[in-house]
Specification:
Elements (H helix, E strand, L loop, with lengths): L9 H15 L6 H8 L3 H13 L4 E3 L5 E3 L9 H5 L2
Antiparallel strand pairs: 1-2
Helix pairs in contact: 1-2, 1-3, 2-3
Length: 85
Amino acid sequence: MGSRILNISEATVIALHALKLIAEGDGCISSADIASRANVSRAHLSKVLRKLVAAGMLSVKKGPAGGFFLTKEQADVSYMQIFEL
């Protein structure tokens, strides 16, 4: 039986890190804070966050106290849904 290697894109890794940080947070978290804490470029993170919002896996609140957050339903997203983005 041959071995299997799981190829995970950088975007998927960023999405997983971002969702973990957002889920652990209390309220909204800014993209700058996510980028800093996940040690990723803000440009690449922004692209990933836009995809997550468009897919309905993440919510965004605009304005000075805004940022990204998860609703109760979004917190139930599976890893497979993220890999399929």
